[in-house]
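FW: tagging you since you asked about this chain on Friday. Here's the raw sequence from the shared folder, copied in full. Didn't touch anything.
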Amino acid sequence: MATLPRTRPRNRRLVSRNTVAGWSFILPNFVGFAVLTLLPVVVLFYVAFTNWNVFGVAEWTGTANFRRMWGDASFWTALRNTVYYTVFHIPLTLAASLGLALLLNRKLRGVRFFRTVAFFPYITSIVAIAIVWNQLFSPEYGPINALLGAVGVDNPPGWTASSTWSMPAVIIVGTWRYMGYYMLLFLAGLQTIPAQLYEAAETDGATPWQRFVHVTLPGLRHTTFFVTVLLTIESFKVFDLILVMTGGGPGQSTLVLSQYIYQKGFEENQFGYASAVSVVLFAICFSITIIQFMVNKRRNS
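HL: got it, structure written out here
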C-alpha cells in the first residue's frame, strides 16, 4: 500500500528558515531603534519627574518640574516664539514648495538642473546657510537693505539685529531651505494625477485656475496632508537654524522650545527640567498630529 510523502517536517523547516532569515534583516534595525530611540524616550519620561544632573543621582520630585513651567517666563516666551514660527512657516513653505513643483512639473529644457538647484539648499550645511544669510540681512552693508533703500524704503528692517524682525528673517530662511525638499514630494504627487483629467477639464472650457482648483488640489489631497504633518513636526522642533543664525536673540526674540531645552539641559545642567519641557513639546506635537489625522479622516469619509 503506497504511503503519502511526509512533507510536514520539511515545511516546518522551511518556515523556520524563513523566520530566521526575516529576523536577521529586522533585528539590527530594531536593536538600533530600541537602544538609540525607544530607550532614551522611556528614560526621558522618567527623568522629567526628577531633579537630576549628570554629576548626581536623580531625585524624584513628582510634578515639580511641570509646576515650575507655569511661572517660567522664558518657557512661555519660547512657546510663543515656537508657535509664531510654526504659524507662518507652514503656509509659506506649503505655498512655495507647491509653486515650485507646479513650475518644474513640465517638460522643459534643463528642468532636472532647476530641480537640483531648488533642492540644493536642503542638503547644504546649516552653518554655511546661516553665515550667508546673516551677511545678506546685515543692516549696515547687506544687499537686501541696499535694495530696499534703492527702491525708496527709508528705514529698512534691522532683520537679525532687531527683536522685531529677527523671527521673520528666520522664517524666510527656513522657508527657503525646506521648500526644495517638499517640492519633491509635491512633484511625486503631481505625477500621479491622470493627464486625462486635465484634458477633460480643458475640453469643458476650464481655465488654468479652475483646473488647478478642481483637478490639481483634489489630486494632491493626500500629499498635502502628508506634507502638512511633516511641516508641523519640523516647525515645532526647529533648532539648528535658529541656534547658528541668531542664537535665540536679540534678547529672547527667537528663542524656541528646542533651544530652550538645549540651554536648560546642556548649558545649565538641569536635565530634569529640560526633560519636562521636552515632554510638553512632545505632547504638543502628538496632539496636533492626532487632530490632523482626525480631520483628514473625517474629510475622506
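FW: Residues 8-47 form the longest helix (40 residues).
HL: agreed, and DSSP finds 13 helices and two strands in the chain.
FW: great, closing this out.
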